[in-house]
Design goal:
The protein has about 200 residues and is α+β, with helices and mostly antiparallel strands. It has one domain (about 5-190). Helices cover about 15% and strands about 25% of the residues. It has 4 helices and 7 strands; from the N terminus they run βββααβββααβ. It has helices spanning about 55-60, 85-100, 175-180, 185; strands at about 5, 15-25, 40, 105-110, 135-140, 155-165, 190. Strands 1, 2, 3, 4, 5, 6 and 7 form a 7-stranded mixed beta sheet that branches. The radius of gyration is 18 Å and the shape is elongated. Mean pLDDT is about 75; it is low at about 30-80.
């Protein structure tokens, strides 16, 4: 059952089968709060890869560790701030979580807007802020290959995007960048799960 139906700018209708919202910065910055609601099948058998307990930024230690030990001399995670290295790391973690939640389904990132407010630059560079809500959604549509049986095959794509508020995208009212996805070039036909 679909949570919502989107109409892409190409005219294709796609069904949103699963959607996970999280705060873009999770527990890294206390001012951004905790995880936001999840809609659809939470994959409870395997655990929610973006839940408070599975959030890659809070569970697996220092999210800036790839930038060297010089960031923290006390052994504690560094006092972070939104900047390009932190944002890039967060995006990579969301993409990996999407890949793990639906193996074999292609994953696409809708490039997020990056705002650079005029603020003091820290040791990792200037402040760079992404929209407040990170979204991971799984979409289904009719098969791409006309030779595939329309009952047995569906095209699928997992998408990571960012938006300012936890809002369910639907119809033609979704974020424009989300509606401009090149479905034919990114999605893949798979056998539909029979109930």
């Amino acid at each position: 059952m679909a949570l919502a139906r989107l109409v892409l700018t190409s005219g294709r209708s796609v069904d949103l089968a699963e959607l996970r919202f999280t705060s873009t910065y999770g527990d890294l910055f206390s001012t951004y709060g905790d995880s936001l609601p999840t809609y659809g099948d939470p994959l409870s058998t395997y655990g929610d890869p973006l839940s408070t307990y599975g959030d890659p930024l809070s569970t697996y230690g220092d999210p800036l560790s790839t930038y060297g030990d010089s960031l923290s001399t006390s052994g504690d995670p560094p006092a972070g701030y939104p900047c390009e290295p932190v944002n890039d790391l967060r995006i990579r973690e969301l993409l990996r979580a999407a890949e793990r939640s639906h193996p074999g389904t292609p994953v696409h990132l809708v490039p997020p807007p990056r705002e650079r407010p005029d603020q003091y630059a820290g040791g990792l560079g200037p402040v760079e802020v992404l929209p407040a809500v990170a979204c991971v959604g799984t979409f289904h549509s009719a098969a791409l290959d006309p030779a595939h049986d329309p009952v047995l095959y569906r095209s699928r794509l997992s998408v990571v995007w960012f938006q300012p508020a936890p809002r369910l995208p639907s119809g033609c009212d979704a974020e424009r960048a989300l509606r401009e996805i090149d479905w034919a070039g990114l999605a893949r036909d798979t056998r539909a799960a029979l109930a």
